[in-house]
Amino acid sequence: MKATVVKNTRISDKFGYLELKCPEIAKEKNAGRFFMISPHSDSVYITDTLLKRPFAICDITSEETFTCLYMITGRGTKILSEALPGNNFLVTGPIGNFFRFEKDTSVALIAGGIGLAPMINSARKLREMGIKVTLYYGGRSKSDILMYDFLQTICDELFITTDDGSLGIHGNVLVPLKENIQNYKKIYACGPNRMLQAVTDLCSQNNIPIDVSLDEQMGCGVGACLGCIITINENNEKVKKRCCVEGPIFDGTKVDWDSLIR
């Protein structure tokens, strides 16, 4: 199906977000799902970006529009960063499972870098349910902290951390999280795998359940190419799962982090 660019906003030299018009995706009611997009518009024929790229559904802005965050890392995202209003892209979605929030509970959202994307929609859903929105968001430096002013408008409590201390708390998200971990009944996290592993270890030590959203390379988004296989520990056995179909969200305590982090 088709998605039309409404707005393309550059946040920095390597980050930005697209607002796309696609009612089929904008009607998604849950947080954490993603979509696949062909990284070239219908006005340009390019053969070296044949495969679609996965992006989290970041924010639902109307009944017909939604946003996605991008980080320029290669040719595909460079093309998306240059998209103009009115350009059309082929998309598939919504895809994957989603975060399951429970009413009347205390939770925390954890994000690292571009892993912020699914947490914006998650914050929206939590607020709709009357649940306090607490976000721990970390980056290497101030330039990796995206949409800071906007985050203050959708969060009840916001902890910002940077490795170099250029913004917020000096250190990673574990620094403030360790002090408050017992305040939460469940954790939801998305970001670099090493961060997710560290947060999962902390949750395990404190008997706090955690769901993690994994960002593995995907070629098709429908489970056919087997390019996004991860290993899950189930019933004392190592089981292979497709991140695009059975994920992208998994119980963090069941992920075989040793096989995922190389």
Q: What can you see in these coordinates?
A:
Helices cover 21% and strands 32% of the residues. It is of the alpha/beta class and 262 residues long. It is built from 7 helices and 16 strands. The model has no long low-confidence stretch (mean pLDDT 91). Helix 3 (117-128) links the parallel strand 8 and strand 9. A 7-stranded antiparallel β-sheet has the order 4-3-7-1-2-6-5. The protein has 3 domains: 2-95, Beta Barrel (Elongation Factor Tu (Ef-tu), domain 3); 99-213, Nucleotide-binding domain of ferredoxin-NADP reductase (FNR) module (Rossmann fold); 216-262, Dihydroorotate dehydrogenase B (pyrk subunit), domain 3, CATH 2.10.240. The radius of gyration is 18 Å and the shape is globular.
